[in-house]
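Subject: Interface between my chains keeps coming out wrong

I've been trying for a while to get a sensible model of this assembly. When I model each chain on its own everything looks fine, but I need the whole thing in one frame so I can look at the contacts. Pasting all components below, labels as-is. Any help appreciated, I'm running out of ideas.
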Amino acid sequence: MSAPRHPEEPRRPGDEGSAIGRLWKNRVVRSIFRVGWPRTRQARLRAMLSSLVLHVHPTRVRAHVLRPGYTLGLGLVSFYLFLILTVTGLALMLYYVPHPAAAYRSMKDIEYAVTFGMFLRNAHRWAAHAMVAVVFLHMCRVFFTGSYKSPRELNWVVGVLLLLLTLALSFTGYLLPWDQLAFWAITVGTAIAAYFPVLGPQVRYLLLGGHEIGQAALLRFYVLHCLILPLVMAFLVALHFWRVRKDGGLSAPADRLHRRVPAWPHLVFRELLVLVLVLVVIHAAALLFDAPLEEIADATRTPNPAKAPWYFLGLQELVHYGAIFGGVVVPTALVLALLVLPYLDTHPRGVGVWFAPERRVANGVFAVVALAVVAVTIVGTFFRGPNWAWVWPW
Amino acid sequence: MTPPAPPAARDASRRRFVAVAGGAGLVTGALGLLGALARSVLPDVLYEPPRRFPVGRPADFPPASVTLVSERRLFVFNTPDGFYAISAVCSHLGCNVNHEPGKGFACPCHGSTFEEDGRVRTGPAAWPLPRFSMSLSRRGELIVDTRRTVGPDFRLKV
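Reply #2:
Try treating it as a single job with all components included. I did that and got this:
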């Protein structure tokens, strides 16, 4: 399998006689990994093709897309965060009880009576927050590099659906701790849903399984959060990855389409490096900062101010100006604009580079809208106090 | 008597029939299943507190007073003209409003303010705080029915 080593060449992993080299000779290992440690060009291609995990990738990948400054690894980070959320979420499910009488107590158990429970909950919470931010940034990256253009229109649409799913997962997860923060954030969120014309009140009834946030609502949010939405998410993530391959790999400018390097080791090891970075950051955040848990939910006492989770504070700020305007018109218009965008912008140029001069107008409009979203979110988070009046955070 | 159709035409029409019948069966079956699923998620029985309930005896409410019945999320007004009930749930997005005697109501979530009689003074709320129908039970308790809203002239004389 390996090419003979020149006597003066330094010993490398996978060489004859090295630890990894000996490992690859083991029969059990060979039954799992049928290709040895790949050193020749041909072995590298076979390594990518013969592994269930690795064959998601192409055997060779455009050198352009490997530059860290091009994709910033944001899609990959989103996926890693989804994996971290799945694993930590499964662990939390073993202790969490989705009933109003027990939910808050089981949260306290997770924090104080489960070894590493606090750590797992923190990791889950911070990974969830990070995922909302990273998915949003990933969308910005794809837009500013013109990567939604033909033939990638459908994958942009799938990406928009994944963004909405990310928000829906965050929102449904928010109710589960059954504390004051959760209860009132969901009160406001579901009341916004009721403003939708014609079907609004029915949607709220369907979401809550009744007229009030109670046992039925908690169970529904639990099943949505732990099962229904993650299953849809997993399917759409698979579709998203599949379409990346079928649309010809990640985008690149026309003059750089054909310079390719083997995915092993260039892509695989970069991906592992990003995984290490994500794990380190989430570990650090979970060890340093505890996820908040307020008092137990109390329908008779609204905290002042009552705030939604931060990624909905922009929405809450808009809702302050009028529920139909902020809760229905603006979000619906934004989502529709995102969905039809790749079909309206048929101009083929400016793909594969950041801020292409040909795309000055499109990038400008998108930047203004994205900054507006960030701005109202910041206003809602830091500049609004009791009775939603202006406050200065400093 | 018409001559029998040639075998090829009979085959074609039979295949067409099987295709149409099969397709119709598939669509009907799928729609039936999805319809049943969609209907089933709308609950018919709710294990919620009743929406028509007693709030206490008239004597529990001092004359010319406003009382917050916090577990029912409403205010009971006892005026010389009679009793009436105003919802404590903001008509904007469902937070509990706070009552400041003589100044009206204020919502902590999005800053709506309401007059003492429930009309909108400022803020994003588009509708007044709803008023609920009240009655007196045979046992002499004040009953509030949150399923029935009433106009601003409603008073329950006891």
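Reply #3:
Confirming on my end. The longest helix of chain B spans residues 7-40.
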